[in-house]
Amino acid sequence: xxxxxxxxxxxxxxxxxxxxxxxxxxxxxxxxxxxxxxxxxxxxxxxxxxxxxxxxxxxxxxxxxxxxxxxxxxxxxxxxxxxxxxxxxxxxxxxxxxxxxxxxxxxxxxxxxxxxxxxxxxxxxxxxxxxxxxxxxxxxxxxxxxxxxxxxxxxxxxxxxxxxxxxxxxxxxxxxxxxxxxxxxxxxxxxxxxxxxxxxxxxxxxxxxxxxxxxxxxxxxxxxxxxxxxxxxxxxxxxxxxxxxxxxxxxxxxxxxxxxxxxxxxxxxxxxxxxxxxxxxxxxxxxxxxxxxxxxxxxxxxxxxxxxxxxxxxxxxxxxxxxxxxxxxxxxxxxxxxxxxxxxxxxxxxxxxxxxxxxxxxxxxxxxxxxxxxxxxxxxxxxxxxxxxxxxxxxxxx
Length: 398
Ligand SMILES: O=C(O)CCC(=O)C(=O)O
Hints:
It is built from 12 helices and 14 strands. It is an alpha+beta fold. It has an 8-stranded mixed sheet.
């Protein structure tokens, strides 16, 4: 698909939130459109590299673009037909992603039953939701509200930390794979390193600092419980995954999916599998997350008070294909209410160690399905390609 310039009208500011930053971006883009003689979307191919550069340099993110009065999607964000052809809310299939009650899972006779439920979901779907996880409802609400408040600050406040790499461990950007993907997606992200070395606390935006720090503690506690259940579900000692530092490297991404004017032409987040061990995801009640189940996309319908947990590639590998790391995506948000989600990716901190299937799970009946590799090698490959489906894990197959 060629990318076409949209009508210049998409750049017409119509709201009162226009800032000097947005105006600079808008002016540059409008002038260039005129120079190319483009007045409607049926004409010239646009210079994608230039558009990308200008979008990045504007530091606006998609929320800033929207606030500038955009009425249709800039071509940068228009996805190819193969992505767009199956974008639709999935048929409602209540209960297809199980919601598992964790109460009593650490200290009661319920533990074997909970281990069984968690391990079944990890084997069959790679996704589950958990309730009675011990995180108070007020903390869930506070965390979502704080991340939302960060994204809804004036563009200048966010632009200060707009960057893709930072020693401080805090950054704001739009699209982690902006320069690698075929098309950009309709979301912005605040990223904070939680461990093994916490980001510089002063750099975490004040508007959400306390909540991010509190969330880190909650995820560390819950992550330890989940890794215990998942280890046991593989027939290993409960402490096995944690001993391998699988909870130590934690990265938080606070996503913001604002209203999208043309949700049929783009996505909120392209289909991908998470590279790490597990991901703990807090989503608000807006919805849009979908999981691949066979050939179908299944909605992960928000359950009040629940947290979503999914298996990442590294755990699929360590489990010798017992647990599944599943492709998932987020539809572009068609509604006026923005969607907020906060994912914490849990990875081993020891990146030079060799990883591969646990020897306990390898036998002559079930030979090792993957080769050994270091996490550095794995992550290098992950971050030098666009977010996509299962290509990465398959690269490491034996
Ligand atoms: O926003 C969501 O619900 C999903 C986020 C996600 O899949 C990711 O950050 O990798």
